[in-house]
Write a structure and sequence with these properties.
Helix content is 23%, strand content 32%. A six-stranded mixed sheet has the order 4-3-2-5-6-7, sandwiched between helices. It has a three-stranded antiparallel sheet with strand order 1-9-8. A hairpin with an 8-residue loop joins strand 3 and strand 4. Helix 1 crosses helix 2. The longest helix has 18 residues.
Length: 183
């Protein structure tokens, strides 16, 4: 799917497919260096992180394991309350493991803060976070994010896994969504 199919719905393309792949390659190299000699388990958060995790994993020059979680945060509309429910838990025991949570975007940080606390209670060797996008102006909680692809303005973005009402996930780029679509 390309941007022409959603003409009028998108305002600006923030990052092209090439820019995203270049940044993921850089992040993978940095992660490989930091975890040299250690096995790392990538934990993706469904559904948004699917594209990020798949492409990040393909940029590694070594073996990585992957697992998935699906969580739901309660709130009104597009706002998160930080009250979280696990819809799909890990299949892997993370006790003593090095865990790297892979996210598509960090917005308020409320849900991610809960997730990191939940994973830490399972006694892993370490828990770190890698996100493709972060909205510093939207953060409501301090979340220690070790690997950040891009910091973006506090705007509604779609594409590359990010959706609005389950649409736009399959765009190859990341773009801002026109307000008339979600207002």
């Amino acid at each position: 799917m390309d941007e022409a199919h959603v003409e009028g719905d998108l305002v600006d393309v923030l990052y092209s497919e090439d820019q995203i792949q270049q940044r993921l390659a850089e992040l993978a190299a940095e992660i490989e260096k930091d975890y040299q000699g250690k096995d790392v388990l990538l934990v993706g958060v469904l559904k948004g992180a699917v594209m990020v995790m798949a492409d990040l994993a393909r940029h590694f020059g070594r073996h990585v394991e992957m697992d998935w979680m699906a969580i739901s945060s309660y709130g009104s509309g597009t706002k998160s309350s930080g009250v979280v429910r696990i819809l799909k838990d890990l299949d892997t025991d993370i006790n003593g493991r090095h865990v790297l949570v892979v996210e598509d975007i960090i917005d308020t940080g409320l849900t991610l803060s809960w997730l990191v606390s939940n994973l830490a209670s399972r006694l892993p060797a370490s828990v770190e976070i890698c996100t493709l996008l972060r909205k510093p102006d939207a953060l409501q909680m301090t979340v220690d994010v070790r690997y950040v692809g891009f910091d973006i303005p506090n705007e509604f973005v779609v594409g590359y896994g990010l959706d609005y009402d389950e649409r736009y996930r399959n765009l190859r780029s990341i773009a801002t969504l026109a307000p008339h679509v979600y207002s």
